[in-house]
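Why (2Fe-2S)-binding protein? Reviewers of the renewal asked for a concrete example.
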Amino acid sequence: MTEDLHEIRLRVNGVPHTARVPARRLLSDCLRHDLGLTGTHVGCEHGVCGACTVLLDGLPVRSCLIFAVSAARHADITTVEGLAGPDGALHPVQRAFGECHALQCGFCTPGFLTLIASHLEANPDPTEEEAREAVSGNLCRCTGYRNIVAAVLRAAELRREAGEADVSAPNAARGDAL
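Here is what the prediction returned.
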């Protein structure tokens, strides 16, 4: 018996996509396997680790907990690939992660980058305690979090230096309809 496929339309990183997926296909799998956007990593597949975090209409969500057909109801999805500017310029969070040595193996990094980008939209000037709280839901087995927290604070500083109010998710903030 074959599974019925559903045609869905998604706007990912500002680009419209169409895919035919089974009803039970997870958004993380759709992004990786159907759209070829492998920056979204799948770790625990239970929504615990945060490696699969993407922005859904600007808000961080665990893409391993959402069906792709459900995500099609939303205006925009931003993955780690969508954080950099159209000219390839790194997002302040990406720059800060490099400057602060906030990654080691890199597996958890895409989830942290998207989560922090969204957090800085809501709180552009976090304290160290607020930065620590913001990243507390994502797991990293390598870094000990000290440099990740430093990167949150550095990204906020880079945003202020650039004087840019909306640099965290260039595609997520737009409410473009599909």
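The longest strand covers residues 5-12. This is the kind of structural detail the renewal will allow us to pursue systematically.
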